[in-house]
Amino acid sequence: MRSLLSALPLVALAACTAGPDYRGPETAKAVSPGAQFVRTAEGVSAQAPAAAAWWTTLGDPVLDALETRALAANPGVAVAEARVRQARASLRSERANALPSANASALYVHATLPGVDLGSSNGDSSGGSDQSGNDSQSLNLYNLGFDASWEADLWGGKRRGVEAARAQLDAAQANVADAQVSLTAEIAQAYVDLRDRQQRMALAQDSAARQREMLRLTQQRQERGTASALELEQQRHQLELAEAAILPLNAERQAYLNALATLAGEAPGALDDMLGETAAVPLPPSHVAVGDPADLLKRRPDVRSAERQYAAATAKIGVAQAARFPSISFMGLIGIGGTRAGDLFDFDKLATIAMPRLSWRFLDFGRNAARVEQAEGKQDEAAAQYRQSILDALRDSEDALARFGAQRLNVASAARSRGSADRSAALMRQRFEAGTATRIQLLDAERQSIAAGQALVQGTSAMTAGYIALQKALGLGWEGPR
Predict the structure, then answer these.
(1) Tell me, what DSSP letter sits at residue 57?
(2) Among positive and negative, which fits the CA dihedral 178, 185, 27, 287?
(3) How far apart are CA 195 and CA 282, in angstroms?
């Protein structure tokens, strides 16, 4: 009983853990219980969205294939995954630091020592003289040794180190998810931009063809004296503008082809055959699930990463505080050997040493106090960054919701304008076929219909881009750890 009572202080010491305990972040101040997004519009619900593969809701198989290729081959995601492996190895290292370490050694020494008498009875020592006549002795030494050491984690510094490493591993895994969110949104946006430029370029070529025909007819009229030189120059100017509008669209189309290839881990031009054919801009679903702010903060990878960094910074305060107290370490040595090889098997010559060691850097002129203060400052920084990540996430989501709602209304307006332009062109064709309108008037009406179609394509692209931005703001598009 007496020995048990004497061990109680050591048990109590071993249970001590320096530094503050991390009890989770304070998110209640930023999000009220049951709160909903305030910028929602028609067609948006508080139903929880799926975290992965949101792009499949656009219903475009080519985009689905691009996303799959990019997630597997994008270098940016590979960098984040490599950092996860580094963090995992760091955690293993911190865990190993709390365990004993052991070393084994083997030693053989042959020495010739001038002027030293080692005794003639040693069979492995030999006497002799060098050319100057000085006596010398030779010595052989054989030794096998084993040592082990362990430092008791009295104040929990090593446990705090493991805690910090585990939190940093969690943060690294969240950073992988964040890289996936950014990548999938960037792929989808570049794909929508590509389809937008392809569509608008085709419409611009149709518009230029009609303008070219209008110029030809005006030239005929001018030759017959029914059109002035001014009308001819006006038509020529309009043609120059129509043809010039095609050039930047083509350059942007090629740039988006390059962007999609590199995002998918390929060289520019590698996906031209896959994406070269003109296709429609994909449309978002009519019903969009966004969840609520509380779910958003749990789901967004950048918020989770900031929270884990906050936890790691809290644990590192304990690491710094533990270094202020005394430490106890234990070392054991076992050795065997002698001046002959046979001594390695003579266990009568076995030597053992056991050494407990107490050390305490009680006078360091404030060095460790400064390290503790630095750790506390880093914790305050991490806490502020976490709060900022919450506010950024909430703002991103509300902004994306507001823009997406406005873009939907804009598309509806552009569709009505396109319908009106199409009806005007149809009525003008009827007049032309009845002989009450010229072909130039018909071509001009068709050109205006094409212009309305270009505006509709732009509006549709902006609406789909708004949907993509909303998915990114909601933190969607990531997969679990691989």
Answers:
(1) G
(2) negative
(3) 8
Contact 475, 183 (CB under 8 A): no
Q: What are phi and psi of 409, to 5 degrees?
A: -65, -35
- Single out the residue of 376, 385, 362 nearest to residue 316, CA to CA: 376
Q: Which helix (H) or strand (E) holds 349?
A: none
Residue 221, exposed/middle/buried by CB under 10 A (0-12, 13-18, 19+)?
middle
Give the tens place of pLDDT for each residue, 418-439: 999 999 999 999 999 999 999 9
Is the distance from CB of 475 to CB of 52 less than 8 angstroms?
Answer: no
Residues 6+ apart with CB under 8 A from 291: 46, 47, 48, 49, 299, 474
Around 472, how many Cα atoms within 13 Å sit in the side-chain half-sphere?
22
For residues 290 and 467, the answer to whether their CB atoms sit within 8 Å is: no
In the chain, the amino acid numbered 4 is L
Q: CA 336 to CA 353: how far, in whole Å? A: 12
pLDDT tens digits for 115-155?
A: 655 554 444 545 455 545 556 677 777 777 777 777 777 88
Which pTM was predicted? Answer: 0.83
